[in-house]
């Protein structure tokens, strides 16, 4: 680009995602220790408006203001500051601007649902829109890949929130065009059994996590089981390819639940060790197993780095599973709160 635009604004809405094969462990520059795959969500999303204004005075420094749901938010600033620092070499125009970032989430405030995936992907997309304003020649493929690349530098899982509906991030021998640097739309067949796949998120604990994901990732360095865990993630990705092609829900459930429990097992066996599940997390898991035994449904669970439970099931079983959730699981949610979501198609 040759000329800077004086001012303007851009808004993006970007969804959250839920990993099936989990990203847990990373190297320098946000390079994942193992590949991961996720369902992009639909309802859970962040909307971010970025207003940019060219700095008139060369002596002025790059700066930004951050508003969260209407008020100035200082506690999110360090994460965004780090993000801007990491991406400045890739977006050299940043230093010439002041940014006003206004962001809001579709999910309840401090519900224990991480907003880093939706939030950082929305911000990365907004900055890419400014890059495209400055350089209209960049094509869609470049735009999407670079948005994911930038989002990764903000928060690893954010790389997977640009597109839908099934997204992979990280090198894996069985996947063409996979990369550690950005996520890609899953390039293989996904059976219609997974169409509109449902995710009902049970809010078990809305408190602040005791250990952040960034700290958890780093505890995989020197972890006694790390190498086996990374190999297992590759194996599970290989298995999922056939599962997605065939629509094999039984094996899908086995992989997804095992991944969730392994993620938490890694937390419990790191040094220092920690536990993010709560008693109600386990109550819900047991109820799901019990219900699955009693019925011929395909309900299963997965977990993020927290106590909340994502209940996954095919759209065709929605009525029966929602009844089960209301009858047996909502009692274990904080204030009876849950969020109904499903697979989505990206930002
Ligand atoms: C995932 N999680 O694959 C895994 C599973 C949580 C559990 O990626 O340090 O916020 O910003 O790269 O992406 C959460 O960690 O960590 C996460 P950073 P991030 O979704």
TrEMBL record:
Domain Mvd1 C-terminal: start-end pairs: 201-329
Sorted UniProt keywords: ATP-binding, Lipid biosynthesis, Lipid metabolism, Lyase, Nucleotide-binding
GO molecular function terms attached to this record: ATP binding; carboxy-lyase activity
Span of domain Diphosphomevalonate decarboxylase-like N-terminal: 15-177
Keyword Cell cycle found: no
InterPro entries according to UniProt: GHMP_kinase_C_sf (IPR036554), Mev_decarb (IPR005935), MVD-like_N (IPR053859), Mvd1_C (IPR041431), Ribosomal_Su5_D2-typ_SF (IPR020568), Ribsml_uS5_D2-typ_fold_subgr (IPR014721)
Pfam families: MDD_C (PF18376), MVD-like_N (PF22700)
Gene Ontology BP, a term: isoprenoid biosynthetic process
Signal peptide start-end: none
PANTHER family reported in the protein's UniProt record: DIPHOSPHOMEVALONATE DECARBOXYLASE
Protein name: Diphosphomevalonate decarboxylase
Species of origin: Maribacter vaceletii
Source taxonomy: Bacteria, Pseudomonadati, Bacteroidota, Flavobacteriia, Flavobacteriales
